Structure formats: C-alpha cells, structure tokens
UniProtKB/TrEMBL annotation:
Source taxon at top rank: Archaea
Domain Calcineurin-like phosphoesterase, residue spans: 24-169
SUPFAM superfamilies: Metallo-dependent phosphatases
Pfam families: Metallophos
InterPro entries: Calcineurin-like_PHP, Metallo-depent_PP-like, Pesterase_MJ0037, Pesterase_MJ0037-like
Name of this protein: Calcineurin-like phosphoesterase domain-containing protein
Molecular function GO labels: hydrolase activity
Organism this protein belongs to: Thermoproteota archaeon
Amino acid sequence: MEILKGLATVNAYPALYLEKYNAVVVADLHIGFEAALEKDGIHIPVSMYPKMKAQLTSLLDETKAERVIFLGDVKHEFGEPSVQEWVEVKDLLGWLMERGVSVDVVRGNHDNYIIRILKKYDNVTLHDPVMFLEDIMLAHGHKSFEIPSEVRVVILAHEHPAISVKDKSGAKYKFKCFLVGKYKEVDLVVIPSFSPLAVGVSINEAPKEELLTPMLHEVDLGEFTPIVVEKDVGAFKFPPLKFL
C-alpha cells in the first residue's frame, strides 16, 4: 500500500519500502530485550531474533531490496551491549553482508556503544542523529531537530505506534500501525516497531503528554491516519484518529 509518493508498506510487515532507493526501513528491533526482562524476573523462553530475521528475510526476498535502514534501537540495553546483543547483532550484520545488502543505522536512544559492533562491518554506515535521502529525512525520534527547507518527508520511529479497537462483544485488540500526517508543511510518517515483544503504545488512547516523541507533542494527532499491519491479513487504512 502506498503511504506517500515513493513510500509503501509491504504486505503486513512493520516496514517501509522506499522504491527510489530500493531500500527497506525497519526500526525498534530491541535485540536483547529478553535478557533485560530476565533480569527483572520475566522469563521469555525463546529469543525473538530468529523470528525477526525470518521476517526480514521474507521482506528482502519479496522486495529485492539492496539496502536496509535500521531507524534506531537495533539493540535494547542502554549501556554496554549484553552477550545476547553482541551475538545476535553480529549475526544480523554478517548475514546482511553475505547477502550483499548495504546497511544504514540511524542511532536510537538504546543504541549506546553500538559502534563497537558496527565498526567491524564494511557494509554498515552509522548516522547520528539523522539521515538524509535527498528530500527524505530519517530520525529515530527521541530528540528534537531542525528540518531543512528542502525536506519533503520525515520518517520517525521510537513511539512504537499501535491502535486499540473493540469488537461488538467489547473485547479489545491492539494492532501495530503506521501514523501518517503533517508536521507543519512536511509529511510525517511514524513506523511501528519490528520487535514482536514491543507491541506498542495505543495512540488512540494514550494522553498526548505521555507520548515519548517530542515532535508528536507539536502536531494535531487527531488528524493523523493510522495504517494497521497485521500478519496474514495485510495493511488496512483506518479513519483519522479523531474518529477512533
């Protein structure tokens, strides 16, 4: 589904495809989240990384993309990479290098010290705090920044957007979604998390002041359109948030 000119969803994946650059954009993998939960006494029996790698494999196979842009929070720990992060991030980057895929990492707030892993790979470029593809500006979203006048589209992550809806019986369901709207004169797209564990914040229920992304505090969220992505179903465009 085309979100904006040159930007499209790919089936039900929580990812963007940038046609002109033959690139996919994914964010918030939070590799190592399971180890962090284990420290808090929450046991996740299996790592989510193999599932994310399988999804990314299918995504690359379907799009034939030659470039992957990780829009922040590749890893989860704020400090030094954990053992799980070292092992799985290295596996991810090594696998992408073997496929001949170039990699861009836009640094997120969880990506402290990630350079220690990235510097081992010639196919990886780190961008901090933003990345430009001509008139497209990409940032994780945890910081405020100036937008140059030539920018047409800003793509963010960080918020893990989702919406909650109820069925006729009153049961509530949460779905990951893209958010599409305007920031001043610029098109703004917020992409959902790629991690199965980070389902997200229900944008249609959360008080605006509790949102994590500074730029979202400056917009009328009611005018933003959610595009839900659900596995085995596809992508669905919902009415603007003010109607949900």
